[in-house]
């Protein structure tokens, strides 16, 4: 079942041209390709962090972006969660306060706080500050905050970047468990084939700003 349709055309000041169209189904869809191919730009367009010159992005038949109709919902109205590769936790807030920020973003409470703590195994971290967390712990907290906002769609931008291989393997297991547990459709950006094989049900390969291939993961 297709739940996301993306068509984006944009030329950046650098001269790089993004001209890509794809649909995604329920489950985990990966955007794969070399650095600079346009993967993260597509993720940012879906999240509402930049507006393409031309295009249309629809989530569950709801227009998030439609340049022809002058529709461009701000990020907070898209109900899309995003986890960046640099975590983006609030440094002045405890882990619990960072997680509670996700709860405050939406009135719905379909994802339980304690369930997120248990699934991600971060119960023991709630009183700590982000500066006292490891890279893998920060990534799990960032994922928990995104889940607690009860998004219709979850976007993961290179979630394994900057982690050593043992931590990457551990995070893959956490992600596999978490995404299965909460059944939130996910778009995963990664250039690592090993991670794609472990997590994604289908892969869309991006090359030079265009869709080069779409296939099962």
Q: What's the structural blueprint in terms of helices and strands?
A:
Elements: E1 2-11, E2 17-25, E3 28-32, H1 39-47, E4 54-59, E5 62-66, E6 71-72, E7 80-83, H2 95-104, H3 113-120, H4 135-148, E8 153-157, H5 165-182, E9 186-189, H6 193-199, E10 202-207, E11 210-216
Parallel strand pairs: 3-9, 3-10, 7-8, 8-9
Antiparallel strand pairs: 1-2, 1-4, 4-5, 5-6, 10-11
Helix pairs in contact: 2-4, 3-4, 4-5
Q: How would you describe this protein?
A:
The protein has 217 residues and is of the alpha/beta class. Helices cover 30% and strands 29% of the residues. The protein is built from 6 helices and 11 strands. It has helices at 39-47, 95-104, 113-120, 135-148, 165-182, 193-199, and strands at 2-11, 17-25, 28-32, 54-59, 62-66, 71-72, 80-83, 153-157, 186-189, 202-207, 210-216. The strands form 2 sheets. It has a 6-stranded mixed sheet with strand order 7-8-9-3-10-11, sandwiched between helices. Strands 2-1-4-5-6 form a 5-stranded antiparallel sheet, covered by helices on one side. α2 (95-104) packs parallel to α4 and α4 packs parallel to α5. The two termini are 16 Å apart. The model has no long low-confidence stretch (mean pLDDT 89).
The SS-based structural class is alpha/beta
Span from first to last CA? 16 Å
Please write the string of helix (H) and strand (E) elements. EEEHEEEEHHHEHEHEE
Percent in strands = 25-35%
The largest sheet has its strands arranged as: 7-8-9-3-10-11
Helix content: 25-40%
Individual helix count: 6
Gross morphology: globular
Query: Mean pLDDT, as a whole number?
Result: 89
CA gyration radius, whole angstroms: 17 Å
Number of DSSP-assigned strands: 11
Contiguous uncertain segments of 5+ residues:
none
Largest sheet, in brief, is: 6 strands, mixed
């Amino acid at each position: 079942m297709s739940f996301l349709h993306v068509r984006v055309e944009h030329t950046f000041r650098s001269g790089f041209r993004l001209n890509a169209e794809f649909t995604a189904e329920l489950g985990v869809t990966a955007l794969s390709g070399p650095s600079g191919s346009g993967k993260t730009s597509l993720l940012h367009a879906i999240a509402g962090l930049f507006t393409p010159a031309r295009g249309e992005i629809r989530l569950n038949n709801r227009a998030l972006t439609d340049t022809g109709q002058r529709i461009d919902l701000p990020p907070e109205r898209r109900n899309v969660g995003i986890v960046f590769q640099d975590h983006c936790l609030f440094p002045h807030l405890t882990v619990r306060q960072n997680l509670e920020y996700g709860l405050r973003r939406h009135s719905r409470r379909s994802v339980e706080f304690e369930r997120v703590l248990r699934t991600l195994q971060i119960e023991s971290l709630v009183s700590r500050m982000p500066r006292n967390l490891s890279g893998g712990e920060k990534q799990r907290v960032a994922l928990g905050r995104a889940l607690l906002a009860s998004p219709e769609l979850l976007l993961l931008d290179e979630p394994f970047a900057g982690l050593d291989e043992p931590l990457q393997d551990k995070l893959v297991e956490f992600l596999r468990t978490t995404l299965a547990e909460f059944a939130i459709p996910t778009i995963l950006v990664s250039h690592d084939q090993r991670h794609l094989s472990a997590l994604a049900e289908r892969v869309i390969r991006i090359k030079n700003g265009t869709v080069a291939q779409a296939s099962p993961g």
